[in-house]
Amino acid sequence: MRLRAWIVVGLLAALPVTSHARATELWSEKQAGTPPLAQVPDFAALAKQMVPAVVAINVEQKAKQARGPRGMGQQQGAPFDFFFGPFGGEVPREYRGRGLGSGFVIHKDGLILTNYHVIEEADTIEVVLDNGDGTERKLQAKVLGSAPEYDVALIQTLEKANAQVAFLGNSDTTSIGDWVMAVGNPFGLSHTVSVGIVSAKERRDIAPSGRQGLYDFIQTDAAINPGNSGGPLVNMRGEVIGINSAINAQGAGIGFAIPINMVKEMLPDLKSKGKFARSWIGIKIQPLSSELAESYGLKTPHGALVAEVVDGGPAAKAGVQAEDVVLEFDGKPVRNSSDLPLFASMAGVGKKVELKLWRKGSERRVTLTLQGFPDEEKLAANGDSGGGSELGMTVADLTPQLQRQLGVEVDEGVVVKQIEPDGAAARASLRLGDVIVGFNGKGVKTAREFAQGVRGLAAGAVIRLQVLRGNGKLFLAFRKP
Fold this sequence. Notes:
Layout: H1 2-14, H2 20-23, H3 43-50, E1 54-66, H4 81-84, E2 92-107, E3 111-114, H5 116-119, E4 122-130, E5 136-147, E6 152-157, E7 167-168, E8 179-184, E9 192-203, E10 217-220, E11 232-234, E12 239-247, E13 255-259, H6 260-273, E14 279-280, E15 283-286, H7 290-295, E16 304-309, H8 314-318, E17 325-329, E18 332-333, H9 339-347, E19 352-359, E20 362-369, E21 371-372, H10 376-381, E22 384-385, E23 393-397, H11 400-406, E24 414-419, H12 424-427, E25 435-439, E26 442-443, H13 447-455, E27 462-469, E28 472-479
Parallel strand pairs: 7-12
Antiparallel strand pairs: 1-2, 1-4, 2-3, 3-6, 4-5, 5-6, 8-9, 8-11, 9-10, 10-13, 11-12, 12-13, 14-21, 15-16, 16-17, 17-18, 17-19, 19-20, 22-23, 23-24, 24-25, 25-26, 25-27, 27-28
């Protein structure tokens, strides 16, 4: 038996070494006792600091409710209607609607930041402040300034609030993976906090709530529900790095916030002028596909393709041409077509900037001076109209480029470029890419002509449009709001 044991031991010693030490040559492990890279923050202390600076915002406004199956006999101003909109019949009637959002105090006298869509068209605004002892105060407020394109608004209480303020941080230093806390009033449940991380930054080519605009969102998985809009997104230093603005339509746990550094740029204008003075470059751009990039001799589809240059605008004066590809704006790389409008609008009126262009196989640089964004009439004269904004849409001239893009054969008309989900155009079933060729029995040639026609009608007047959609034509009729 002893001899057999020695034989077994000898055989085992002769086997190849397959120990854990040798196997771990395929991967790396940290030594035992290595301190963790991340610690769970003290969320309770953070909430205690932030909650008193966050307010609930109650608004009352004229709204429209459908006289359909859902509208008949139901309670007016149901809490979810403000966020999701009513569903039902086609004949609207006016009623006094109520809505709820959030905001946060940035000055003890009662300056409050929130979203534009929270206070949009509000007749009265009431803010509810936390006294810090379990009681609340209600104060009336007014709008000091707004920037609808960025979904930002600054309001002020009509009497001094003497409120606790939220400290503003630096959103540029925020990193993906950082802990954040969202504070607000979801579904009317006051002073609710939720935590998560920063999931992504610089989300510019989306409109998660259906509203087109100039966005540069911080994406987070901290729960942001209806009613959180306008509340702060806070870092672990107790600083506001964003204004909670939008929720994912599918409820997939994705929320978005406006970076606070962008808002800081707007605040002086919002307080002193009532609006933010956007700067303007004077070009119309389109995305650069891989095929277009290859056709222009570019290795990658990075940049914004100039589709048109507006006559008399800054770009025209600097010699920018159609089919130029903008690669850089004022030293910032333009990765895609959603970058350039944001860069240009935030740079500042009167600022000189350099553009790096790609033209006919080589790079070149031009310098231009940014102008203020044109008013509605000037913009319409240049072929892009906000005149349809009364109807909840934006239209543009039917250019040869748009003709080819849409595959339409008509030479005159205006193209529907943007539609607000709760506007008259959306309720009338207009769609993006529709070409309006007739307006109340007359032909439509330009966006300016269409804008003037809309402005010339009284509220409640019937609008009849002839629309080219795909290969067919149809008529749509509705009343001007």
